[in-house]
Structures are given as structure tokens and as C-alpha cells.
Amino acid sequence: MAKPMYHQLPSGMRLGYFHNPHLPATSIAVYVEGGGLQDPIGKQGTASFVAALLGKGYDSVSPFECAKALESLGARFATFCTYQTFGFSLQVLSEYLNPAMDLLHNFLQNPMFPEEELEKEKKVILTQQLQKRQEPYGILSDAVRLLLYPGHRVQKPTEGDEKSIPAICQRDLLEWYQKYFCLSRGRMSIVSDKPFEEILLLVENFVQGLPVESPARLEYPPLPEHEHAKIIAVHLPVNQVFVQMAGWGIHRKTPDFNACRIWNYILGGGFFASRLFRTLRVEQGLAYSVYSQLTAGREYFGKFSLGWDTHIPNLTQSLNSVKKVVGELQAKGVRTSELRGAQSFFLGSLPRFMETSSQWSRIILDGLFYDLPKEYWRKDLKEIRQMDRQTVNQSLQSFFSARHLHTILVTDLNSASSSLPPDTKLFPTYDALLTLIPANPSS
What we know:
The chain is α/β, with parallel strands linked by helices. Helix content is 42%, strand content 19%. The chain has two domains: 5-206, CATH 3.30.830.10; 231-436, CATH 3.30.830.10. It has helices at 46-53, 63-73, 97-109, 115-132, 136-148, 170-180, 196-206, 257-269, 275-283, 315-332, 336-349, 357-369, 376-386, 389-401, 413-416, 430-433; strands spanning 5-8, 14-19, 25-33, 76-81, 85-93, 186-192, 231-235, 240-248, 250-251, 290-294, 296-297, 303-311, 406-411, 425-427.
């Protein structure tokens, strides 16, 4: 297997490259530090709109002309925005790479963020948010964020909300972009059949004229103190109860990252092979599917969650069963057979995420974002292969002893009132749920 190559440009941008001679195409991904956390107070969603409108007009070139230029090259251009980063990706046949890079340079050097496109995007986002209020999983996602980050900027979605979105204008996007887009905070991954020397020359020409430094300092407000566990129920006229138990996850660079992956797989991440699935579906028939999910963050923790849905009369039994499974895992640890099964899964599945150009691009970009060792995936595979029960069980104990899990229920409160746990706080509408956001956030 070929090894990625890395290079730091004079501007400070770090480049990761992987040679794929078997496909005559190039895949590029770039992120720049400075996402939704840098939005002006009261105008949350600014960074998200910057990303959404990037590539939709520059200088005097219209959005239609930009789309036509991409189409003429057969190129695929996409953007993204998170709380900590914003960026884009580009896929194109290598024979059209030079004109595609020229077009990308134009997108970045002088974006227009047309007012009419901004208004269209606002309508799309506001419509999506209204739709999400009628979807159990959308409500669960919002409720988890509201409970985990009280008073923090992360309480609000990266795309903004019905209060902040109308306040955002074209000038806000231009000012945000001028403050936070710069090469020194950028990371770029390229997977191509072209040799590294040719790619490097192309990138060095590409960055000419783009801003190197930013006039603004990035702000990462500290997370709030971890509150005691809460139980809330949000009304939605459905005949099921949708459940999620959630708390903080882990940092990507934590030493026991791979041990956490293993016990999470055993608990619920392994779906059919997990304890939760075996208990709730196979043995008790309480849920069609049940899962646990553990994500990792950089400055902040990721998220840990357990989720399932069940018939309303089965809510109490399912909650007790999940708590029992988690408690037994903490008390007795993982079994040798479970550890071997998890090891086999990861050792067999992780290499399958290193096959396509887009997969390699993501792997390299993740390594640059989290500042991981070169070829960190080899280190992960070695650790997983050598993992023992004691290491996994110590990780398990440490994780759950330091975290509280909130419980969120989305169901018909009229039908489920007698099945709810005693201390459940009720929210009869989605708007009532938003009262969890303080009037004056502390950070």
C-alpha cells in the first residue's frame, strides 16, 4: 500500500497527498478552522451560509455561470460547515484538474455571496427546521444539544434558527469570510493519479493571492459544568416512544480511544452483535433496533448516546433493561469472546474504508484536523489487535464514572403519561423545549 505524503506550504497550510495511479481522477478536500463558533452573537448561522454560498458567484460572474463552468468540467463541488471548521471538496477527472483549480481559486479569492442566493438559502433552511420539528429524530437531536451544552454557543444549530437567520445579510457573510478565511488555518488533502511533484507545483500556484493570515482570533468558549442527569419528554402525536440517552463523548486524542471503540461496539455499536440488541430485540422483543454511538471531538468532547424506539406501554421495561445492560457491563466488564468479536470486526472493517479516493481524502484530512500521527490508522489497528480485557474494562469504568446521561423521550404525552418516569419534565410543544436556551448565553 502506498504511503501518504505531507508538506507544509510557506503560508502555513498543511497538505496531505495520496497517490492513486489506478483512477484518472483527483479528489480534493479542504477545511479551514473557524466555523459556527465564530458567528456573531445574534447571527448564528453566518458561517453556515458562507459555506453554502461559496462557489455561487465571484467578481461579476453569476451563480448560473459558476454552475455551468463546473458542469463543463464534469466537476463535483460541495461545501460544509461545522462548529469548528468550514470547507469544501472537489472531485474532477485529472485531465481537467488545472482549469478546475483555476475556477476554485476564483471562488475563494473574491466570493460574491449574492443577496438573492442568500434569501433562497434562508428559505430552504427555515423550511427544513420546520420539518424537523415534526420528526422524532430531529427533535431528539435538538434536545440532546440543548441539554448537553446549557448556555454554550453549541446549544444553537450551526445553520442558525428562526430568530438569527432573518438578521443575517450579505455584508455579514463578506465580513465573516474576510475575518476567518486564511491559508495558515487551512488543511488540504489531495488524492490523485498525478505525481506529488506535479500536485505540489499546482497547489503552490493555486494559493497565490489568497489571504495568508487572519485578523481575528479564534474563540473556543469552555464547556459548561456537567449537570446532573435529567429526564425530559417532548410531545409529538405518534404511537411510539422514541428514546435517547446521551452524554459527553471523548476526545479523539485520548489514549484509550480504541478501547472506547471496542466497549461501545460490544454495548450497542455492533448492532446485531451487541448486548443491547440481544437483550431488547432478541430476548425481550421490545424494539426493532437499538444502538449506542460514541463520537470523538478535538477542543470539545464528542457525544455518547443510546437510542431505540418502542411501544408506549413497553417504555418502563425497556428503560430498566437498558440500564441493567449498562450496569452489568460496568460491573463485570466485557467477556473474552466479546473482545475477540470486536477485534475481528475492526481489523476486518477498517481497511475497507481505505479503498476509494474520497475515503483516502477523508482519512488524511481527519489526521490533519485532529493532529494525529502520520499513518495513524496503522497505530489504531495495532492497538486493537493487542487490546486486552483489562484495558477495555478500565476504559469503561473511567468513562461512565465521569459522565451523566440525560434521557430524552419523544412521544404522545396524552397516551404516555402513565408510562413516564416520575421525575420527567414535560414539554408540550417544540417551542417549549427552546426555553432550555437561556436569554443571555454565558459563552
